[in-house]
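Chapter review: from sequence to fold.
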Amino acid sequence: MGKILKYKDFLLALAIFLSFFATLSFAPLFDLDEGAFSEATREMLQNGNFITTYLNGELRFDKPILIYWLQAISVKLFGLNEFAFRLPSAIAATFWALGIYWFARRYFEEQIAFLATFFMITSLQITVIAKAAIADALLNMFIAYSMFFVYLYLDKKDKKYLYLAFGAIGFGVLTKGPVAILIPLAVTFIYLLIKKELKLFFKTVLNPIGLIIFSAIALPWYILEYMDQGMKFIEGFFLKHNISRFKTSFEGHGGSLFYYVPVVLAGILPYTTLFLKAISKVKTWFRNDLYLFFAIWFLFVFLFFSFSGTKLPHYVIYGYTPLFFIMAIYLKDIKNDLLYMLPALILFLILLFLPEIALAVKDNVKDEFAKEIIKESPAYFTLTYRLFFGFSIIFLIYLSFNKHFDKITKSVSLGFLSVIAINFFVIPTYGKIAQLPIKEAALIAKKYDYDVVMYKLNTPSFILYSEKFVKKRAPKSGDIVLTKITALKNIKKYKILYKKNGIALIKVEK
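The token string follows.
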């Protein structure tokens, strides 16, 4: 164990580079979310309005302003490209990881600090969200720091941590709204209720200096936005995109009470076995104040969003940070190395034979558009892709039975292999299949300055890459139309300008 820990700084830096930065430009922006956030930023730069965001020329109240400002700065520095739009998220994820290590070194030995940070950097959902040109990496960073500062204040009674917590919450509210208040507020309340210190709770949350710090950071933009848009902002942001998301299934994103069980099991790959081992020790999660705080943090997020009407996979990530500490603590209890490697082995086997699996189930898929993509996809799974996953499966089996490597060495190997698999093979391959046709069609539209009608399709990245608004309506004679090939049956006569993987750019003829 000592050998690995001797190189911990290098290993963490390498993991951050491979997981967060190395492949920022390896895939086109993904729709809907990446395309929508990035296009809203492009329009901000185009129209010079840095208070109100627009998408395709229409008001967009989905999220507050901070991520758009950061993306705008990045685009100004690096140009209108995937790297620039994703860079703020990668930087935020880096500071999130550094925060985990910083906090862990105050309460745990060096080994736990290293493992908790490494598990965070290399977990499946984190490596994906850390590069996404959306608000969630930034929000998770602020939530993590606000929770760390809250606990440090409650433990050390040093008010600088309380003020830092209010600051982090303020920036979180500027990133994604009330959820940045809800999580630290609710977790702190439950924690102090259990400890029978509710007076301290009210003294903490009503601290005048803290409230001033929070207000100075969070409120100016909200006030300016209300002054600019009035009740449209209140109805669009607070009522629609916050309250309605909890009360009802928003935009079809519903799910059962157990929605987040498979999400967590998949989201923390390749460490699912370790998570299940930690779950089996759940009674020990409450054995001291810090463990209690961690347990409440994860369980509150998990349960709150399980009962929410709108469910999206990335919501549960708000509660992942304490999991990485808990998993690091229980790594020593893993006895069966093959069982530890099994989730990654299953994942890699699925990925190795994914084209064959997809073709085998194609006839059972009801969505004709999805069928078309499946039919075209095998060509994108190259020999290099197949060799990588074949070698990785053999290597994981070798690791499972090799007694010369300790648990930390095996965990590090597992993490790096997973990060390389997802970032250098899976995401780029999926990007070529699902998003490259949208980008290529957009670049054609940009080259010939087409006015495009988007029909039976919603891909904001097309607007970004073409740098021109689209109309969304039924096609008319003479229109240049972007659509799914499954929608072509509704158009009598047309000329195909571009077609790939179920996407078509056509000219409607008389």
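Two observations follow directly from the output. The mean pLDDT is 92. The beta strands are 54-55, 58-59, 452-455, 471-472, 480-484, 494-500, 503-508.
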